[in-house]
Amino acid sequence: MSSTSNTTVSTAGPPSRRNTELAMLVFAVVIPVLAYANVGLAKDESLPAGMLGYGLGLGLMAGVAHLVVRRWAPYADPLMLPIATLLNGLGLVLIWRLDQEPTLTTDALGGPMASGQLMWSTVGLALFLGVLILLKDHRILQRYTYISMVVALLLLISPMIPGIGATVNGARIWVRLPGLGSLQPGEFAKIVIVVFFAGYLMVKRDALALASRRVMGIYLPRGRDLGPILVVWAISLMILIFETDLGTSLLFFGAFVVMLYVATERTSWILFGLLLSASGAVFVASTNAHVGDRVDNWLDPLALGANGGVTETAQVMYAFGSGGLFGSGLGQGFSRLIGGIAAKSDYILATVGEELGLAGMMAVILLYALLIERGMRTALAARDPFGKLLAMGLSGAFALQVFVVAGGVTGVIPLTGMTMPFLAQGGSSVIANWALIALLLRISDTARKPAPAPAPSLDAEQTQVVRA
Predict the structure, then answer these.
(1) What is the C-alpha separation between 71 and 75, in angstroms, rounded?
(2) Please, which residues have CB within 8 angstroms of residue 274's CB and are 6 or more apart in sequence?
(3) pLDDT per residue over 76-110, tens digit each?
(4) CA nearest to 453, candidates 131, 11, 54, 140
(5) Are 328 and 351 in contact (CB under 8 A)?
(6) Is 100 exposed, middle or buried (0-12, 13-18, 19+ CB in 10 A)?
(7) pTM for the full model?
(8) What is the Cα–Cα distance from 153 to 188, expressed in whole angstroms?
(9) Whole-angstrom distance, CA of residue 34 vs CA of residue 41
């Protein structure tokens, strides 16, 4: 007598690691709360009155984000959310610490202080949740490749529109929106333009990978294939000239070159990108007074300022020098000497270096490096070419922004005016970067999700019957 037996084929996938994420989130909330208490004890010798509310608010935000990731992206990377939460929390503490200095005020456009930054962080987290819940599959974005290009260009030129555009500190990169205050469209454009680059390069990568001849061991691209990189270079140069926005221009062009190299695996594209970037920077620095001043401050940071005083760049050097190995302690530095909104935005790393020292500075940089590494790991794990390019582009844009800001503050390159992601004051920046993390988590979840189990074949069922 024979009988049939039903067999179920299952594919074991990687663990979801959500419990690991939850444990890391506890540390990501506790560390900023302890830093908050440290600042209060240093300034007033008592625990700050808002410490409990701050801790509960940050914990609630982290808890809601974790629950949404657990439900809608269960296989996503377990470290990205805790690292972003920790950086955002530390940024809120540093901005609040600088708010205690009466000489440090908000910007001319009414930019947020610590309370305002907390509000913008909440908006950014809401966008983070919306992306994870509504975007079921990142490959849907490929359908909107050329729409993304149009949207990105509209965002980039919006500060030039009369009536809504605003110039701050020599750069025309802001727009005023009734009821919303001031926003920096370039922060959102960096994400949208990466979506366009990923979709475009996925289709054109075979043609761009072709080489015409080999010179000094390097394959040079064909002349007709230089069109895309020349167009992007020209657009980034126009952004720099008309909006005096060195940071967005470098980010825009750098992200394209990185993605072009990943798509084609041609080192020659990197060399062409560096050559075009350097030539464009030299041209603009010699013709634009604002950019030229930044270069002069970089070359001679100890020169006297316009009123005969020490420049902000020199004050930052003094701050790093006085920080030593372990710093003066939170709340016990002299970042107020930098002055103005720059202490909370462009130069917030100077406060980290002075009050937390080299050890604290390296810890913060390592957090950024780990977040970038997890993004690149996601790109390597992605199963589709669009996902690979998108994850690499987002990670590359984030890495470029960190390098440009940290390099400008430490004197490696001229200061560009960009904000340190999650750490510095800036509503547009924190909102856009939470959206960036959400996209990386969506790609990570798709990459690590177990493949569906194949249905048993008819031959296998017949074999089971015979054996029975």
Answers:
(1) 10
(2) 257
(3) 999 999 999 999 999 999 999 888 877 765 544 44
(4) 11
(5) no
(6) middle
(7) 0.88
(8) 11
(9) 11
